[in-house]
Amino acid sequence: MAALLEQMDQGVIMVDADLSVLAINGPLYALFGESHDLLPGASFADLVRFLAGHGEYGPGDVEAIVAHQVDSARRADPAFQEHRRPDGRVLEIRTRRSPSGGFVRTYTDITERKRAENDLAGQRELLRLTLENMGQGIVLLDRDLRFRTYNAKALELLGIPEAVMRATPTLHEVARFQVATGLLDLPPGAPEFGDDVDAKLGYLLERLERPEREFVYARPQGDGRFLEIRIVPLPDGGQVRTYTDITDRLIADEAVRQSREILKGVIDSIPALIDVRDRDRNIQLVNRYHRETYHPAGAPAAGPAEEQAAELDRHVVESGQGVPFFEESGCDGAGRRRDWLTTKMPLTDESGAVSHIVTVALDITARKRAEAELRDVQTSLIQAEKLASLAQMVAGVAHEVNTPIGVTLTAISHLGEEVARIQTLFAENRIRRADFQEFLDVAWETTRMILSNIERAGGLIQSFKQVAVDQASGERRAFDLAAYVDEVLLSLRPRLRRTKVTVETDIAPGLTVDGHPGAFAQVLSNLVINALVHAYDEGEAGRIVLSAREEPAGWVTMRYADDGRGIPDAIRDRVFDPFFTTRRGEGASGLGLSICRNIMTGTMQGSIAMESGPGRGTRFLLRFPLRVTGVSGYPPPHG
């Protein structure tokens, strides 16, 4: 008997009626981790007391635990129970009463089985939660096509009461219920069966009951919804069916389709070339304007422009960056020369890689033609402005020269009278020493006055001649900047004398510039005259300062500054625009500063910048090289 107990996988204890332990096998000692000689000859109560003292039954009064365990063992109630040990293992305890009034108790370690059961229960719960939380309805049909498993979403989408589904109906029965209640509509194009439910049911199930392979189809519901149904046959003849409400998706697809149609209409209505190409430059889309420009079945002919486009497309693909607007020219499908303002933009996929290149080209042919015409008009206006400036200079110089010439004429007349008087005295032999001395004094004074005024007139004429020739010819030559500024200001002196504005210079002598003095003279004249017109009120005193310094690397910085009213912030950005003026009704053309900018950036190969604000005067900064290269003629061809 003892040998048999030792061979068992279970722990066994045999107790007689007076609770004396008759036998305990080794596996029982092993289950509780105790030695075989534990409590030899002890009672069952002693064994329980020992285990309770070691925490086997958890916290509590030891004697109360012993009394409870002994009482339940005597009554074998319950006959089957599970006991979780402090180390986490689970023991299955079975108690059977013996005929003698004692009992036999077996202990089986079911820890692994419980773990497996718990894992299985967890997986089942996870599966249940997964099915219930799916956005799709899902059902499992057995080989007889009876509904065995389903989730709540399936009931909702199919419109089947749960009471019907609990009866494990067949697919045929569910379909009949749906057809009979109007929950299921026949697909578009189906024959007309009237109220014949069986005919409708047969039509539906003929090809959808047992497909040979996975099958997906969409069907309308009686409530206006659309379901996508996926049928997956199983090896045992059963099926898994999923039901997805695709109503919103169909609505969204229709909205996308309409949006595409609208977008296509918008793109076709845009008066610009639009083409979309893939990474390999295959055309995916062109708009109507593109088709009309290069013919419906054609594309731009290969050539330099196409080679440039291909290179730019590769740049967009490789860099992921767009190409800013640039101008290009080419022939359209009719062979006409066209000018385009073109930009390129990348389209990227979800990974950020460039998938397409979008090219947009605006037709600027008319604008370029208008710009060319405007340049011609502007050149004519600039020439007229220059001639008008020369005319004003001629008038001013003529007025200025008139004074010394008038003085000279008066002096010569007076000298002539004195000569006639002395001749008469000499002829009549009445000349006296005092008369001759008086004549000599008058002759000396008159000669000195004539010489002074002739030199003054000659200087004015020479200055006018040099500035006028420079402005008329626009030729390049070397000139001393300080001396030339003085000559320009001398030519402006008649205009300045009618005002209370003074001009001061701070330019070191010997600063020689190899450039276009006529162009520079017009810039300087325009700045000064512009100040006289706009910076000061009539009769208002003012001060203009012109200074220049040589910079390293062969550049000259010249500063113009006046203390006039300044230029309001609202129009500062427009002062260099052609034809912009705030005194158009007073004879101003609006070309003064525009001409200055054209000359400085073109002929003088430099720049002009303005700094101004109300009440703090106006300042211009001019920069140009000491030696102008590569420029011939004046004015420049472009504004």
TrEMBL record:
GO molecular function: phosphorelay sensor kinase activity
Protein's name according to its UniProt entry: histidine kinase
SUPFAM superfamilies (alphabetical): ATPase domain of HSP90 chaperone/DNA topoisomerase II/histidine kinase, PYP-like sensor domain (PAS domain)
PAC domain boundaries: 321-376
Matching InterPro entries: HATPase_C_sf (IPR036890), HATPase_dom (IPR003594), His_kinase_dom (IPR005467), HisK_dim/P_dom (IPR003661), PAS (IPR000014), PAS-assoc_C (IPR000700), PAS-like_dom_sf (IPR035965), PAS_4 (IPR013656)
Histidine kinase domain residues: 396-628
Organism: Azospirillum doebereinerae
Listed EC numbers: 2.7.13.3
Catalysed reaction, written as an equation: ATP + protein L-histidine = ADP + protein N-phospho-L-histidine
PROSITE patterns with a match to the protein in the record: HIS_KIN, PAC
Keywords for this protein: Phosphoprotein
